[in-house]
Amino acid sequence: MFKKRTVLALVIALSAVSSPLQAKASPYPAAQMKDRSYYEERGDIVWEVPTEEKYMALTFDDGPDPQQTLKIMEVLKQYEAKATFFLVGDRVERYPEVVRQELQEGHEIANHSFRHPSFQGLPGNVMEDELIKTQDAIYKATGQKPVLFRPPGGYYNEKIIHLSKEHHLQMVLWSWHQDTNDWRSPGVSRIANKVLNNARNGDIILMHDFVHNSNQTTEALKIILPELKKRGYSFVTISELLSHKVAPKNHIKVSH
Q: How many other C-beta atoms can be found within 10 angstroms of the C-beta atom of residue 160?
């Protein structure tokens, strides 16, 4: 009996020591336990937009780039497509003229952090600095501040959701069935087929306008855009897509 009590006391003591360390290692554990519907229903995060009309939103991360972004915009212009560009702040500072051209051609610009770090494990003040510096860089380049934010890699937790709201930014991710993985340069046909084979109303398509030594995204767009236009789709900015959101239907019980 003495031995059992001693072992039990040791276990309790070790638990008391280890618990604070576990809490410190995972400061937002609750965020990992809540599913997508929790954040979607609250409007905290947008993955796609339910709409009855044939609208889609093309999004491009990691730019601007003075070569790839301009080539992508040429294709978009050819097919009368508007897009949303999630910009990296330090690249905005290097290529402000590209950002201004995006706006002039009717595209939407959005925040994608300043140096594109992984937000996983970042302290809150560093996350906030990434948001603020990008907002400031875009404002300096264009006189406008974005209203949308996409975290690098799509990583989120309770802290970054809170910071986004605090800075009046709507967090936007992408349709899970429309991640083209174009940043891996998987081949033009793979990128195009990913979009074409999964096309649905309200899709938010994830692409990139800065991929090292690759023009596959541009070439894939030359296949995607004419084909989806034939199917009746229009390509709009995220903000416009949100304006076409269909409210959930309330099931009203009628008594007789």
A: 23
